[in-house]
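Hi support team,

I submitted a single chain yesterday and got back a structure, but I'm not sure I'm reading the C-alpha cell output correctly. Could someone confirm the output below corresponds to the sequence I sent? I've pasted both exactly as they appear in my results page.

Thanks,
R.
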Amino acid sequence: MPKKFHPIAKITQISGLRGEVRLKPLSRYFDEFVETRALSIGYEMDMCRDIKLTESIGKGKRKRFKFEGVLSRDDAEALIGQTVYAEHKDGDNADLISKDLIGYTIVTESGHIVGKLSEILWLPANDVYVIMDGKDEKLIPVIEEIIKGIDHHLGIIIISPMEGLI
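Hi R., thanks for writing in. Yes, this is the structure output for that exact sequence:
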C-alpha cells in the first residue's frame, strides 16, 4: 500500500549560506510532524521526492531548517516554493483538517444534512469547519466530542452537535 502524506509547510526563503531554509506552517501539527515523520518535498504531491530533516536551528518564527543534500545557498534557493509533506498515519488528527475534505457533506448522527464544508479555519484554540447551507454559514469546532467520523467514499462528515450549535 502506498504511503499517504499531508502538506505541513511551504518553503518560503533561504537563510544563511549553508543551505538552511525557512518554512511557513500549513498545519497546526507542523511542529510535531516535521521532526518525527518521514518527509517528502515537491511542488505537487504526485511529483515529490523523499527528503530528510537533518537539523532545526533557532526558535519560534526565526527557526531555520536544514535538509540532507542541501549544502549551499544555491541548493536551498531551488527549494523555494515547494511544499513539505509529512507521512500520514491512520488516526492522525491531521485527517480532520485535510483540504481534501472541502466539499464534503456534513450530516448529524440522526441523518440530518447540515450543509457542505466550504473552508477549514486554523484558530488558536482549535480548528473550525465553515459549513454553508444555502446562504447561511455555520461554524463547527473540530473536536472529538463533535466530529464522530469521516466517510471518504460517500464524501460525508458525521457530527454529533451540542445543543444550540446548529
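A quick pointer for reading it: The first strand starts at residue 5 and ends at 15. Let us know if anything else looks off.

Best,
Support desk
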